[in-house]
Design goal:
alpha+beta; 27% strand; 20 strands; 11 helices
Length: 429
């Protein structure tokens, strides 16, 4: 397939998608001396209701590349403990303050600030380029091998709020390696014909914001037929109301007043502010999926992050898993990319490294869906805390176990060595 009459440009690695996986991979490859082009279809990173939980393992990575102090200067909130409130009390389930190291907490930060920080550091390396308004439309192939991508470069910026590029010129770029980090609706995964194994999630999440009242209680609330998560974002609360798959229609049928009253009954502390949710058009639905690819690669192509494995919001681990994929890919592939040849064996090594953490995390999420989310949503009467929650309440030292599982994960990755010095003069321009 060609990219039109225009001569295709060339790079060593082209990455489709400017989310956490794509930008982290671009940064680490450029830092390791590999020319890399990241293509992002939006004009900026300003999208609301994206994953914004940064885990201790990701904070440690930022420390390894010299970004932790800058990150901690961003406006953010810290979660040191996590609790679940049922109809028979509140039970602390994870104590991140017991984790060893510099970062015994989860950090909540707007994803656009996180991505801007990563991109600014990456631009200080001569081999890195982030091209926005560049919507990848398909793969380039040659002799059965993927050799790059076709994309549409917007003539002007996207719409308000960083909408996707529209119109524009068709272009192509050839690369030794193409990486699909273009999310759960991946265009490149579809073009490559890679097959997903899907696991039923059974729920959707309704996201919305509320003003933050004084003394607001955040955390998880489970009651008969209801499951709500409230996150403190400083000057507002970000709320997740879990419903059975397709449940938004039932909520809409009941109307905004009934939805506000339901929230106030579940969380009386929010009663003074639920009126700020004037209309259900302010509620955004996330179709929850849990899936993963059987194979993450073709000749010349690697798939990572949500494109390779969609995660449930349970534990807020999606960003962390995507970042860890990118780190493993950079560590394993930087050498072959510098030499100008990436084999199927190299790509298989990345999948082998990341398959176990992904599979174990998804297995834990599926258990949580069945035994916690599903039980709460199906309950006709009061929801009681399961035995595991009661055990954690009685034995505080055990709370480090779920904290480690969520905050550090399985096989946390370390950044590959830096081989190219950044241009520090860019800091003063």
């Amino acid at each position: 397939m060609g990219g039109g009459a225009e001569q295709a440009e060339r790079t060593r690695c082209v990455v489709a998608g400017g989310g956490p996986a794509g930008v982290v991979l671009g940064l680490l490859l450029a830092r390791a001396g590999v020319p890399v082009l990241v293509l992002e279809k939006h004009d900026d990173f300003l999208r609301d209701f994206r994953g914004d939980t940064v885990h201790p393992s990701t904070l440690r990575l930022l420390d390894e590349v010299g970004l932790a102090d800058e990150f901690l200067r961003l406006p953010h909130s810290r979660v040191r403990r996590a609790a679940v409130t049922t109809d028979d009390g509140t039970f602390e389930v994870a104590d991140f303050s017991r984790l060893r190291g510099r970062f015994p907490f989860l950090a909540l930060v707007p994803q656009w600030d996180f991505l801007d920080l990563l991109a600014a550091r990456a631009r200080r390396y001569p081999g890195f380029e982030l091209r926005t308004g560049a919507e990848v439309t398909g793969l380039l192939r040659e002799g059965g091998r993927v050799v790059g991508v076709r994309y549409r470069q917007a003539a002007h910026g996207g719409g308000p709020g960083g909408g996707p590029a529209g119109g524009g010129a068709e272009r192509s770029v050839r690369a030794v390696l193409t990486v699909a980090a273009d999310g759960r609706g991946s265009v490149l995964r579809e073009d490559a014909g890679l097959r997903l194994r899907e696991f039923g999630a059974g729920v959707d999440v309704l996201w919305f914001r509320l003003p933050r009242p004084p003394g607001a209680v955040t955390g998880v609330r489970a009651s008969s037929g209801r499951f709500v998560v409230v996150l403190d974002r400083g000057d507002y609360l970000q709320c997740a109301f879990v419903v059975p798959s397709g449940g938004l229609e039932a909520v809409r049928a009941g109307g905004a007043a009934a939805f506000r009253a339901d929230l106030a009954r579940l969380l009386p502390a929010l009663a003074p502010v639920v009126g700020a949710l004037a209309d259900l058009d302010e509620v955004h639905v996330l179709r929850v999926r849990i899936d993963r690819l059987r194979r993450w690669y073709r000749d010349g192509l690697l798939v990572i992050g949500d494109a390779a494995h969609a995660m449930s919001p349970v534990g807020g681990v999606g960003v962390n898993l995507a970042v860890q994929d990118a780190v493993a890919a950079a560590r394993i592939l930087a050498g072959p990319l510098r030499r100008g040849a990436v084999s199927r064996r190299d790509l298989a090594r990345v999948q082998r490294r990341r398959w176990l953490p992904v599979a174990l995390t998804q297995a834990a999420q599926r258990v949580a869906h069945r035994r916690v989310l599903g039980a709460a949503l199906a309950a006709a009467g009061p929801v009681r805390a399961p035995r595991a929650l009661r055990l954690l309440a009685r034995v505080p030292v055990l709370r480090v176990l779920p904290a480690a599982a969520i905050g550090l994960g399985v096989l946390p990755e370390h950044a590959p060595p830096e081989r190219v010095a950044p241009d520090t003069s860019a800091m003063y321009r």
